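**User:** I keep going back and forth on a fold encoding question. It is easy to fool oneself when nobody else works the same problem. Could you pick a protein and write out its sequence and tokenised fold? Could you put it straight underneath, so I can go through it closely?

**Assistant:**
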Amino acid sequence: MRDIDRILHAVYLNSEIADGAATLDMRHVVITTDPYTGDSMFIGPFADPVAACVFAEGHSAGLVDEDDPQPIRCRVVPLMPPS
């Protein structure tokens, strides 16, 4: 699968809003979660979901330990305005 296809697929899968198209113009953040401690870190905001996915892919690649069965997880989510 081409990189852009994987990025767009990740954007689609990580959308937590019924109408994902509404979030495409919003700023997004990357949430990393340590599987052992459960600690999370927010990185961003990024201008759009594609920019956030590109960062998340590079960031997670730098955290890969081939001996570790549970790598750190990255998710991309829209930065919602306060309600």
